[in-house]
Amino acid sequence: WCPRAIIYDPLKVGSIDGTDFQPHDRAIIRAQNADYKPNKKVKGDPECSIFVARLHPKTTERHLKEVFSRFGEIVRCRVVEDLVTGRSRGYGFVEFKSSTTALMAYKRGNKTIINGSEVFVDMECERLLPGWVPRRLGGGFNGKKESGQLRFGGRERPFRKPIKLLSKKELIISLSDKLNKPKLNKPKDQVLKESSLIAAKLSEISNK
C-alpha cells in the first residue's frame, strides 16, 4: 500500500482508498476513455520541475521567480494563460537547475503565500506519472467535495489505508494487467517509459 499513486489509474484515484472496481461518476469513465498524450511542446526536464497552482490572477512569472529562487537556481518559469483572453489560468511551472532543488521546493514551498494567495505545490505529473489524465478530461487529483468528483492518491488527498490490503499475488496481477493492457495511440517513447516504470514496480514487489 502507498498513500500516493505510482501509476495513474482513473478508477483507483476516484476511490478514497484506491480499491474501487466500478466508477462512481461519469467523469471517471470519461478519463478511462481519454486518449491523452503529454504535450510534446513542453520544454525542460520534468524531474527538475514543480507545478504551482492556486495562483492569484495578478501573479506573474517574475513573482514565481522571486519566491522560488530561494531554493536554488531557476532555469525558467511559466504561468499558463488562456489562449483566448490571455489571462492567467491560475497555475504555472518552475524548472530548476537540478532535481535536488526541485525536490526541496516541493517539500518546503507548498502553502507559500504569493500576492495574498496560498499556493499549492506538487511535482509535475503530466510527464512523470504513467497514465496521467488531466482534470479537464475527468482525471487529475483533488477536486471539490461538493462536485462529487474527488480524486485521491495525490499530495493533498492521499489514499487512505484500506481495511483489507491487496495480497502480494493480487497486487502483482493488478500491475501485470496494467502492463499488458493495449497502449492504443500512445507515443512509443511514452509507452516504453510507462512500461519500464510498471515493470520496475513489479520486480520490486516480487523480490520482497
TrEMBL record:
Compartments where located: Nucleus
Keyword Ribonucleoprotein: yes
Keyword Cell division found: no
GO molecular function: mRNA binding; snRNA binding
Domain RRM: 48-126
A Pfam family recorded for this sequence: RRM_1
Superkingdom of the organism of origin: Eukaryota
Xref: InterPro entries: Nucleotide-bd_a/b_plait_sf (IPR012677), RBD_domain_sf (IPR035979), RRM_dom (IPR000504), U1_U11-U12_snRNP_70-35kDa (IPR051183)
Cited Gene3D superfamilies: 3.30.70.330
BP GO annotations: mRNA splicing, via spliceosome
Segments crossing the lipid bilayer: none
Keywords: Nucleus, Ribonucleoprotein, RNA-binding
One GO CC term on file: precatalytic spliceosome
Main localization (coarse): nucleus
Protein name per Swiss-Prot or TrEMBL: U11/U12 small nuclear ribonucleoprotein 35 kDa protein
Organism: Triatoma dimidiata (Kissing bug)
